[in-house]
Amino acid sequence: MTITVETETEVDFPFDYEELARRVITFTTDHENFPFEAEVNLLLVDNEAIHRINREYRQIDRPTDVLSFPLLSYEEAGNFDAVEDCDDNFNPDTGEVMLGDIIISVDKVKEQAEAYGHSEMREFAFLIVHSMLHLFGYDHMEPEEAAFMENKQKQILKELNILR
């Protein structure tokens, strides 16, 4: 698995954020039984940068905590049967499936950890799990989808022993 972690802002978390990101991404991929080697890109930015990206790609004029840019399409979330049917899903150099990109606002991690009364580590891990589930086709636009996704997030974080 190739996990690229890049930063465009100062990251001063009280934990090894690269190690945690790799552990959470790998665990979530295994948890969801993704049957291929995969590539995931994680970019850490500040509120100003994520605000700019939101405005450009989503027509949302404010910073958000996380953005997910999946590179795969699914007929059904979490069903990976059709991934092999398209050569464009695979990086020709590595043979790995290109899952997509995750962008996290370091500022929002800090703000939300304080607001929700848990650690920055827990908030960071939560945002990665949340985004990984988006890369696997899950969404939370409808109440039943949101409940399903929330349960998956809780289960994965519990199994990782990253609790509130």
UniProtKB/TrEMBL annotation:
From which domain of life does this come? Bacteria
**Keyword Cell membrane attributed:** no
Q: What is its main location?
A: cytoplasm
PROSITE patterns per the record?
A: UPF0054
Cofactor field = Zn(2+)
> Enzyme class, one word?
hydrolase
Question: How is its cofactor bound, per UniProt?
Answer: Binds 1 zinc ion.
Q: Which InterPro entries match?
A: MetalPrtase_cat_dom_sf_prd, YbeY, YbeY_CS
Name the positions where Zn(2+) binds.
H130, H134, H140
Question: What EC number(s) has UniProt assigned to this enzyme?
Answer: 3.1.-.-
Q: Where is the protein localized?
A: Cytoplasm
Q: Print the keywords alphabetically.
A: Cytoplasm, Endonuclease, Hydrolase, Metal-binding, Nuclease, Ribosome biogenesis, rRNA processing, Zinc
Q: Does the keyword Cytoplasm apply?
A: yes
Assigned protein family: Belongs to the endoribonuclease YbeY family.
Role, per record: Single strand-specific metallo-endoribonuclease involved in late-stage 70S ribosome quality control and in maturation of the 3' terminus of the 16S rRNA.
Q: What name goes with this protein?
A: Endoribonuclease YbeY
